[in-house]
Amino acid sequence: MNKVGLIIKREYLTRVKKRSFIVMTFLGPVLFALFYSGAIFVGMSDSTDHNVLVADYSGIVSVQDSTTGKLYSRFPRRFESTPELTYNFVKTAEIKQQFKESPYTLLIELDDVALHDGKVKLYYKKVPSQLVLGRIEDEVENALEELRVVDSLNVSYADYKRMKVELSWYQVDINASTDEETHKSEQAMVGLGIALMIYVFIFLYGVQVMRGVIEEKTNRIVEVIVSSVKPFQLMMGKVIGIGMVGLTQFLLWVILCSIVSGLGSIFLAGSGEMTMAIVDGAAQAPESNQAMLQATEAFGFLMQIPWTTVIFSFIFYFIGGYLLYGALFAAIGAAVDSETDTQQFMLPVAMPLVFGMIISSFLIMNPDGAMADTFAIVPFTSPIVMMVKVAMGETGWLLVISMIVLILSFLGTIWVAGRIYKTGILMYGKKTTYREIWKWITYKS
Amino acid sequence: MSAVKVNAVSKEFSGHMALNEVSLEVPKKSIFGLLGPNGAGKTTLIRIINQISAPDSGSILLFGKKLKPEHVGLIGYLPEERGLYRKMKVGEQCLYLAQLKGMSKSEAKEKLNKWFDRLEISAWWDKKVEELSKGMAQKIQFVTTILHEPKLLILDEPFSGFDPINVEIIRSEILRLRNKGATVMLSTHNMESVEEMCDNIALIENAKVILNGSVNEVKNQFDPKCFNLRMTGNMISFTNALWTNFELVEKKSEGDNHQCVVRLLNGKTLNDLLGVSIPVVQIHEVEKVTPSMHDIFIESVARAKNREEMVEE
Question: What is the pLDDT of residues B106-141, one digit of tens each?
Fold first, then answer.
């Protein structure tokens, strides 16, 4: 045991002391934040200003000013121009040909079909962003709706708005003690996020284990080491040591991220209006308090996630899943001579992991199905699938069985991996096949 | 009680016999040469003694006791394929390897300092292995092998990669360790060093021990019963005198000065040879021809191969 401790210590310290580890620890959250906000920014922003020409042949949404002869919106407070988005109306037919050479960026054709079916033709020079499209869509949709309401019903648009029903579910679990509303799909999303972290962790550090084994093998130091310790001790020391490096990095990231996000929210609170604009672009300058209330309501489901179980299971599946795959990655490293040879063995190890991710994303649609339960028990997918289910409130026998199966199977996998490792680390120059590996596993000792 | 006793050890790798009923004994406090052509099974045997792999059958006794995991501390092993962690610092690495052999950190540090001073390599302590030359790294590896003062040293080609000066240093260190009571198993293709250093040898060919014993015994076994004579006189009379009891193997003449290698036949002795020679020539010098380990190696491997071919036919 003492020797395993020495190996763990070496594996841990040499990695933690590396410059790349320190850099990644500090850069990781920054990169993540940049990447994340960058992704949002790219999706949301549209730097080009849009000049929209509305071809309203039959005067559906526009009327003519009797003195200037200019067309303007029939409804007050609709099609109002902003610096980024301006609307102009035109009545002329055959405007399509002229649009190409005109300074306008978008052309909307409103005709009776549009009024009747809600199908509106939009010509573009460059594809506009979803955000811009959404804003124009709202504008046109509301205008057409108002027109229909005012023309065919005998009520004001404001009255109509008041009468209109928008249905939403108030889901309650009959087995729960209270009549509290449940938000299973939101909870599943949180679970999926946590599962994704486990997945990334297993991959990142599993590959490190594999590299470490290959390094020792190509260095030839492995023969010296196994003359002092058992190959199994070396393998476990490596897997555990690298796992601890991962946990350390993860923990540091959590700490750093909470500091960064803490600072971030202080900064954002200072410019509250901007926050609101981002949170809800359609909301027309709501009171800050009201927005806060909405936000609390929207994230209320977080309170329903059984955090104690989630954190406990997270740590369990994090470690269990890593040990299961880490040992396999070590076996792959032992079976090959260089990293370029790892391809053929990587696939069967990576497949179930990727499969687990895909299953989990489908699981959100049908969380209590038999398939979901099955994959929550199968050890190669359980760290991911079960995590989603736990976040959704699963705490019963399924969790217990899943955990027991995972423990048993990582013990089994480590045993198999140990046998492959033992023979593989001293094999050089031969291209390893699956048949060969099977022989290694079944060697009598 | 011998340091190592190998008892009918066999090992098979997927249809290939690596060791076939190998038995040998390494006496204590001696240097034992484990010889054999490439692929004969030496490394397999060494790995079994190091408990890196296990025999299919047979047993190994280390200082009279059955091989156990605790024994790794008694052995110092220098594998043929050298290797150290390239990115690790020399000192750190030596400490790590010593601790894996069961030494405490402080003890390892103290002994390392002594050895580094002895070999004049103290300046390398904080260098990374990748900054060292091949020979330097070999020296470090030698130190890590012997640091824990193993009772049994197993050295596989310890001189490869060293310049003549360092070969001398390593050679004298090995002899010094033997004199201090260590047993050394030396696997090498360098027959010169076998002759100089080894007390006993075993020659393995094709998974079997084909020659075993003390260097003197082995040499006697391969005694060509030849003598080198330097003489003057009539060569024809000399060859006539040899007749059927002696064979002239080689001769070199410069006028009346001759140098001949003569083999004794039919149980004749040197006295008999001198008896027939003295009447016809003037003898100046007689020297027994002893076989070199190099010749013995080649000859016994060739013999073993012939035997196998005959069996196959």
Answer: 999 999 999 999 888 999 999 999 999 888 888 999
Tokens coding B261: 């290698």
On whether both B48 and B196 belong to a single domain, the answer is: yes
Residues of A in contact with B51 (CB under 8 A): 227
Tell me: pLDDT of A299 over 90.
Answer: no
Task: Indicate whether A365 and A216 sit together in one domain.
Answer: yes
Domain shared by A116 and A265, yes or no:
no
Assigned domain for B230 exists? yes
ipTM of the complex: 0.83
Residue A296, pLDDT score = 60
Residue A445's closest chain B neighbor by CA?
A: B54
- Distance between the two ends of chain B, CA-based, in angstroms? 42
Q: Encode pLDDT of A82-118 as tens digits.
A: 888 888 888 876 777 788 888 888 898 888 888 888 8
Answer yes or no: do A15 and A135 share one domain: no
Cβ-defined contact of B52 to A10 (cutoff 8 Å) = no
Of all residues in chain A, the percent with pLDDT exceeding 90 is 12
Across the interface, do B50 and A3 touch by the CB < 8 Å criterion? no
Q: Which residues of chain B have a CB within 8 Å of the CB of A219?
A: 83-86
Whether B72 and A222 lie within 8 Å, measured CB to CB: no
CB contact under 8 A, B84 and A221: yes
DSSP for A272-328 reads HHHHHHHH-SSS-S--HHHHHHHHHHHTGGGGGS-HHHHHHHHHHHHHHHHHHHHHH
* CB neighbourhood size of A198 (10 A): 21
Question: Is the CB of residue A223 less than 8 Å away from at least one CB of chain B?
Answer: yes
Q: Is residue A174 part of a domain?
A: no
Q: Are residues A348 and A326 in the same domain?
A: yes
Q: How far is A206 from chain B (nearest CA, A)?
A: 20
Q: Are B60 and B21 spatial neighbours (Cβ–Cβ below 8 Å)? A: no
**B96 contact residues in A (CB cutoff 8 A):** 6, 10
pLDDT band for A291, please (50, 70, 90 cuts): low
Average pLDDT over residues A284-297: 56
Check CB contact under 8 Å for A10 and B96.
yes
Rounded-to-integer distance, Cα B132 and Cα B138, Å:
10
* Structural domain count of chain B: 2
Length of chain B (residues): 313
Residues A261 and A332 occupy one common structural domain:
yes
Which residue range is the domain that position B32 belongs to? 4-214
What CATH number should be reported for the domain holding residue B263? 3.30.70.1150
Residue A275: pLDDT above 60? no
- Quote the pTM value: 0.78
Cβ B24 vs Cβ B6: under 8 Å: yes
**Domain end position, chosen among B167, B189, B214:** B214
Q: How far is A219 from chain B (nearest CA, A)?
A: 5
**Nearest chain A residue to B97, by CA:** A225
* Dihedral Cα B111, B113, B119, B122, nearest 10 deg: 160
Assess if residue A402 is contained within a domain: yes
Asked whether residue A189 is domain-assigned, the answer is: yes
Q: A187 and A268 share a domain?
A: yes
CB contact under 8 A, A6 and B85: no
Q: Which amino acid is at A34?
A: L
Q: What ranges make up the beta strands (E) of B123-225?
A: 152-156, 183-187, 200-205, 208-214
Same domain, residue pair B206 and B270: no
A3 closest CB neighbour out of B81, B86, B100: B100
More confidently predicted of A346 and B14: A346
Domain boundary among B193, B214, B235: B214
| A3 part of contact set with chain B, CB < 8 Å | yes
Residues A94 and A202 placed together within one structural domain of the fold: no
Burial class (CB in 10 A: 0-12, 13-18, 19+), A319: buried
Q: What is the pLDDT of residue A277?
A: 45
Q: Which residues lie across from B78 on neighbouring strands? A: B155
Q: What is the mean pLDDT of residues A352-378?
A: 80
